[in-house]
Amino acid sequence: MRIRIVDAFTDRPFSGNPAGVVLLDSWPHEDWLRAVAAEVNLPETAFAVPTPGRDDADYALRWLTPTAEVELCGHATLATAHVLYGNGVAPGLLRFATRSGVVTTRPDTEGAITLDFPTAPLTPLDIPPGLAEALGARPVSVHSPGPAIAEFLVELADERTVAGLTPDIGRLGQVIVTAPADDPGSGYDIASRCFFPAVGIPEDPVTGSAHTAIGPFWARRTGRTRLTGRQLSARGGTVRMEMAGDRTLLTGTAVTVIDGALLAGPGQAVGSQLT
């Protein structure tokens, strides 16, 4: 069985956010999916199965971290679409049935891929006790982007503060931090970082789904419908955003870095620790 490792939201290998991509004919046992995701040990591994019986979707798509299944994942969707377009399976629109509804992807003429995702709801919150201490920085504002995205979207004072964070990971659940870019000429408008230890990812390198909250948040502040975000992880990556009402369009590129064989197929036994 074939498996690819794809770096998403980047045009260079060994940057952006790596995702495993496994294309299947049908769904195997749940334990096998979890075992593969744990073995690959990347922020997410995507599993896709064709859905010939559905009129609204071409594939069913699931995303698993090494420890949990997530509701929405941008970079692994981008990686999956990158693989399918590279295979010549579909030249244009791809529709994926997910736990967050049907999401779509479409390639452009320059090699980028645009994801059409649901816009995250943003609910203002009081600053939770202990959050500033856990982050090591005082929030300017805090919002809830909904459970499919994160526990908190935290606005910080400036990009320098975002870049310099050394949070107490053990005290965080799922937190997005963001601030405007310090330099308007830097090529991006917004800086961010994402900490998701609750699902086994201490810091996510580049988080597409987070930008369904980051984009609308800053669109309200700036009055702009198109923005570019830069995630300031060690690997780094860039997400272009366009706000379209209850949908947010996320555009980026991807690079396949490993194309290999998964020798332990779905029919093989899975260790008892996963059952």
Pick out its properties.
275 residues, Diaminopimelate Epimerase, Chain A, domain 1, 2 domains, 17-stranded mixed β-sheet, 17 strands, globular, Phenazine_PhzF-like
Poorly predicted spans: none
CATH architecture of the largest domain: Roll
Number of helical segments with 4 or more residues:
5
Helix coverage percent: 10-25%
For the record, give the distance between the C-alpha atoms at the N and C termini, rounded to a whole number.
22 Å
Structural class: alpha+beta
Q: What would CATH call the homologous superfamily of the largest domain? A: Diaminopimelate Epimerase, Chain A, domain 1
Characterize the main sheet. 17 strands, mixed
Summarize the helix and strand pattern as letters: EEHEEHEEEEHEEHEEEHEEEE
Roughly how many Å is the radius of gyration?
18 Å
Please identify the top-level CATH class of the largest domain: Alpha Beta
Shape: globular
Q: What is the beta-strand fraction?
A: 35-45%
CATH topology of the largest domain: Diaminopimelate Epimerase, Chain A, domain 1
* Strands, total number: 17
Can you walk me through this structure?
- This protein is an alpha+beta fold and 275 residues long.
- It contains five helices and 17 strands.
- The protein has a 17-stranded mixed beta sheet that branches.
Task: Describe the secondary-structure layout.
Layout: E1 2-8, E2 17-23, H1 30-40, E3 44-50, E4 59-64, H2 74-87, E5 94-98, E6 101-107, E7 113-118, E8 123-125, H3 131-135, E9 141-144, E10 152-155, H4 159-164, E11 175-180, E12 190-196, E13 201-204, H5 211-222, E14 226-231, E15 237-244, E16 247-252, E17 254-261
Parallel strand pairs: 2-3, 4-5, 10-11, 12-14
Antiparallel strand pairs: 1-2, 1-17, 3-4, 5-6, 6-7, 7-16, 8-9, 9-10, 11-12, 12-13, 14-15, 15-16
